[in-house]
Amino acid sequence: MPSMAQGGLNSSVQNNKPNPKSPTASLFSIRQKIAQHRKSLPIASVEKRLIEEVQKNDILIIVGETGSGKTTQLPQFLYNAGFCQEGKMVGITQPRRIAAVTVAKRVAEECDVELGQRVGYSIRFDDTTSTSTRLKYMTDGLLLREALLDPHLSRYSVIIVDEAHERTVHTDVLLALLKKVQRARLKPVGENGPQQNSVLRGCQGRKISPLKLIIMSASLDARVFSEYFGGAKAVHVEGRQHPVDILYTAHPESDYIDAALVTIFQIHLEEKVGDILVFLTGQDEIESVERLVQERLQHLPEDKRKLLPLTIFSALPSEQQMQAFAPAPTGFRKVILATNIAETSITIPGIRYVIDPGFVKARSYNPSKGMESLDVVPASKAQTLQRSGRAGREGPGKCFRLYPEREFEKLEDSTKPEIKRCNLSNVILQLKALGIDDIIGFDFIDKPSRGSIVKALEELRLLGALTDECKLENPVGYQMSRLPLDPVYSRALILANQMNCLEEMLITVAVLTVESIFYDPREKREEARASRNHFASVEGDHLTYLSVYRESDEFLEKRKVAGSENKIDKIMKKWCKDNFVNSRSLKHARDTYRQIREHVEQMGFTVSSCGNDMLEFRRCLAASFFLKAAQRQLDGTYRALESGEIVHIHPTSVLFRSKPECVIFNELMQTSKKYIKNLTIIDPLWLTELAPHHYKSAEPV
Ligand SMILES: Nc1ncnc2c1ncn2[C@@H]1O[C@H](COP(=O)(O)OP(=O)(O)OP(=O)(O)O)[C@@H](O)[C@H]1O
């Protein structure tokens, strides 16, 4: 792979400094600092060569160290080189929402423009772009949705797929789609090469020219991508902005949570100024470390307590995630407890220390059993490299890996592509909506197993999205593809609309999207259980969630709480604490409810409620989730009707003790046992009545 050594600098800073006493002086100095910072990035020295490579190659793979400036600078180089003329845009995709948002804000600041003007971001439920936007940061999933409306992606001159090493299912599908779009936008190859004079018409009759594609990461196996794109050129941007010292433990740690806590306090008490970023595996773990940090702080002398724990995980509402990006109050050190959503692309100002216990929660899926599992597994080398890359972005940093160096050598190089370990029904429905019919023959970079494709097609057929010939032809299928939800939840909303319980289903789906609506501290388990009883419905978890949500609504209503979001948040937090409800999860559920409600209303649905007729709502749950039904066996275990698996009711379910005869459930998870979660009691006869195409005879047992 040719590399680009650091050479001359291309950016320039203005020399005509204003009077230091003038009001514009401080603004000038901020601008000057930013300009100097940009000049100092390794990528700045190769701007001209990179642009030449983009001009010469329709597909370019760029590998460069973390922090070298790929994500923030390359789009600006392309803008300056004229790639956004005639209203065209450069699109930059990120696997994570948080990265799309924070990077766009930073680039807008660097360009000295208002966010949403030249530079903007667009993520599910939050679009800041305008007709003036030329550099558009977005999630890979969002670009896939855009392709539904504009199959040639005709508004883009260049698309940059950033952090491609993450190999999310959306990145993989997007790469395949972009390959197709690029071909469609090329004229038949003539003597002048492929990229000249080619003009097609976009969906709105606009002229469209060839599409440039750039694939980018710091930890990319460039060969895999190059081969996939028929020998595409790969270049390496050399140079790292600031050094990061990597430190390992001498021996393996038996308890990585405890080791992380010890390291947090060691840094806090012994190291120089600088904030700390700790990578943990999930919301529960993060919240328990947050509490432990608070507790241990109480044992420190008053003047040593200035450590502020903050959190970042995907179920946290965006504005709360953003709190981690604000500077710590004077004299305080921030310790940010994050999942791997903070692993790539983002720069959190102030971070000098990273603590990496070396684990990640990874989803896997067994299509034949329809069973998902979420296991804590060792992170890959690519992930650990990204993690250490979060230190050293503003100055030299340190990364504390909580395992011995010999363990690092044993890690997998990269993470197994998500497409090989997830339920594909969502992706396949989207591909179908994009007009891609032959899923098995589709040109994936890594083919998912035939078994999981067949299973997903079957599921979509049973949900009524596809015809018996696996074609997307009916209105229900199109409606389902328009909703940004798992097909089974989209179907549930469509059915609820017909059965007059859309309001109840919207709440249910919103609550099901959060990790856990209840707060269950180990030390107060009994008290928490007693409080949960107050919400508990004998008919199951879904109705219990409804009552939590509704009681929180009534509480706000009674108080006639008006005023700022902050005031509402405060009051809600107190209510949640008293009722052992997880306030962050509830807030997330409320936001999601609002967003999905907007979607269904745009689709022309009227949100009506079944009032107290919970029978109708349970019938609707049965009609929606009939693929996940389970029947009690003589020995008290359950048999999942679809797969025949022997399963157990999860102890967190309100039905754990009552053991009803027949239930529907939303999740089948393998942890210490095969557990079903989120259950509602149903009459087994409903299955044959409401899903006769699946349960043909009158005996589902
Ligand atoms: N929000 C921000 N606030 C302050 N500085 C920032 C911010 N975003 C980026 N930077 C600075 O710009 C540098 C380059 O960031 P950029 O995201 O372009 O690098 P990258 O090569 O894409 O890194 P990675 O591979 O880790 O995504 C960072 O190291 C940091 O110094």
Automatic annotation (TrEMBL):
Residues 263-435 form the Helicase C-terminal domain. It comes from the Eukaryota. The keyword Hydrolase applies. Its EC number is 3.6.4.13. One of its GO terms (biological process) is mRNA processing. GO terms for cellular component: nucleolus; spliceosomal complex. Residues 51-238 form the Helicase ATP-binding domain. Keywords: ATP-binding, Helicase, Hydrolase, mRNA processing, mRNA splicing, Nucleotide-binding, Spliceosome. It catalyses: ATP + H2O = ADP + phosphate + H(+). Residues 8-25 have a biased composition (Polar residues). It is an enzyme of class 3 (hydrolase). Residues 1-25 are annotated as: Disordered. One of its GO terms (molecular function) is hydrolase activity. InterPro entries: AAA+_ATPase, DEAD-box_helicase_OB_fold, DEAD/DEAH_box_helicase_dom, DNA/RNA_helicase_DEAH_CS, HA2_WH, Helicase-assoc_dom, Helicase_ATP-bd, Helicase_C-like. It holds the Pfam family WHD_HA2. This is RNA helicase. It comes from Cardamine amara subsp. amara.
